Amino acid sequence: xxxxAPTFALDHTYASGGTYTVKVEVCDDDLGCGxxxxxxxxxxxxxxxxxVAVIAEPGSxxxxxxxxxxxxxxxxxxxxxxxxxxxxxxxxQFDDATGAQVQxxxxxxxxxxxxxxxxxxxxxxxxxxxxxxxxVGNRPPVSSFVYTPHNPLVNQQVNFFSTATDPDSxxxxxxx
Length: 176
Known about the structure:
Elements: E1 18-27, E2 33-42, E3 61-62, E4 66-70, E5 81-87, E6 97-99, E7 103-107, E8 112-122, E9 127-137, E10 145-148, E11 159-162
Parallel strand pairs: 3-9
Antiparallel strand pairs: 1-2, 4-7, 5-6, 5-8, 8-9, 10-11
């Protein structure tokens, strides 16, 4: 390559990543030549990084109540979260809520530990799953009672009548 200008530009496109040895040689009109060699590293094609799925702990949950499950802490280090898919019934299928629903309200009807999963998909199609165990506690009974007579006298028998209710179980007698 012979150029007469003191500076020049040459363009080249590398089809794949790797390390290349580049040699530039220049010659003058008296056939004197000089060269320089250097190493050029072209990075490999970047790969898509997995998104990070996160479910915030829903807090205290009691039987029959509705809890908010929140996936807004999910991130993608090299893009954006494109879709959320929820498995709320623990069957391993992400078919209980899909799309852009970053938050999901779910009613827990039974006492015990319930497995909830969130699958996030990034804008390049990569997925990741977060799992949280939601403990659903028993709803306590509501204790109340009435008594007669309302103004008892010394040595007078007082009768107590419970009007307690339990939304999810049977009331067991207890003492005073």
